[in-house]
Amino acid sequence: MACTDRRFTGRIWKYGDNVNTDIIFPGKYTYTLKAPEEIAAHALEDLDPGFAANVQPGDLVVAGRNWGCGSSREQAVSCLVLAGVRAVIARSFSRIWYRNALNNGLLALECPAFVDLAVAGDTATVMLDEARIAASNGRTATFQPLSDDVLRILDAGGLIPYIKQQMAV
Amino acid sequence: MSGQTFAQKALARASGRDTCAVGEILDVEPDVVLSHDNTAAIRRIWEEFGQERVKHPGRMAVTLDHAVPAPSAVHAQNHREIREFVGEQGIVHFFEAGRGICHQVLSEEVVVRPGQVILGADSHTPHFGWLGAFGAGIGRSEVAALWAQGQLWLKVPATMRIHLNGTMPEGVTAKDFALRIIGDMGADGGLYRSIEFTGDTIHAMTLDSRMVLPNMMAEFGAKNAVICPDEPVLTWCLERLAMRQGIEAGSSAWADLADVLRKGCLYPDADCELEAELRYAAEDLEPYIARPHSVDDVVPLSELGQVNVDAAFIGTCTNGRLEDMSAAANILSDRRLAPGLSLVIIPASSQVLEACIELGYAETFARAGAMLGVPGCGPCMGNHFGVPAPGETVISSANRNFRGRMGTPSAGIYLSSPAVVAASAVAGRIVDPRELD
Is residue B155 part of a domain? Predict the structure, then answer.
């Protein structure tokens, strides 16, 4: 889950603007579902009912503006992590979802240029060190390199393991 | 160097600094850390740190509000674990099921004061900007980290200032203004930003109305939103704190407390740096409706056309206050709900409920055929108490109309002010209360 793998390839699932936390992970489950496989089974349930059954480890979710708007529920990130999603690439992110992603070791990249060229079902390769994403049709897009603050948390695998490392020092 | 915005001042103070820059990342020590029914889940994360005691139990606030009374054994067990945890950790600011929604209760109890920073595992934490505090929503892991360490990194947001001046037309509310802003600019129009509300109309609003604005800015993508505190806000805080501490009005302790509160207030510098400014004239506003399934799909009510409704809901941290109950009671007095329609009314807190009983609103609601619920979040996020049937249309005073938000993906949720909800519940279709016979 940690970002130590600097280059990876995944299949693209593509969605639109303002995908909110209720359709990523419905609120009615937030106080009842706890088991990882149950949480993963409801990922994107009200947006794309075929997602949870067909997502493969390493897949990429690509979306438009304001991905993850709405609730602060962290399951809107953990359901994707548990479903095997390697990264979410969007035009922009809701701020709480973005923090939750980072804090759960899920790579979230703002890259509007890649969203323009991404095709659902195709594959793409993310190259973190080059801050570049290459689609399988050969077209590429660049993103703002991740800051050291972000990388430290991602490399630890999220906020909790990061703090545990700090507390151990 | 230019002056500081409210957000810069609040975050600088909470990180032990005099000033800070927009975009800078600070280690912030919040004055209050909020969690609710998610407290048991946060505890399980916090336990990974192996600590026996949380660092600052006095800074924690815990409410039971999201699913109260417990709709299932699983929810009941969740509440039980939270009660055990707050007992073990000696958390003073714990508010039982039935006391009300976290944002309303912490406001009534003045757990958060002007100029303070509150971070909460709830997306509507910007709410506390109504009293001049910096409130921002965070995730469960972050709350666990705060319990352990007392501090968290935050990026200092850029500021958008929204001006509202003039006189609001009759029947137009703060909710309509919030919907208008979100409709104009989109659900990400305030993304990552601090929103400062200003203008004579804002300060002429009742406090119940003001609370709607920062609260709804969660739907605008904002990090926080604020209205600078004025005398009515200071009086609200002073009276409630004094009563809790047994301080008599006019005593020297009263004057000291007033002084402490006043010194805590933060105001943006005249030459602070604003990223954007929006200006509205109150006279141009009208009642607005957000259509399913997006809070930014906003139209003037006058242009909505015929929409029949099956269910109606008045309540939530956005619009469940006494003023909202009063608006509903005015409309429902001597009227009955449309046949076949259900109306759920849930006061935001036990204090609001008590006032509804005292003022006769509870009786009005019951006579009209409405269902009066236990203070809490109710059906807002689909846990219980008025979940719609598949394909039904709901008119609601809540803050979100996302697909499936109320538990039923095929239901359509329209958002409006409480008065429009009440009038629509009588008419059986979405109407302007000014049009009711």
Answer: no
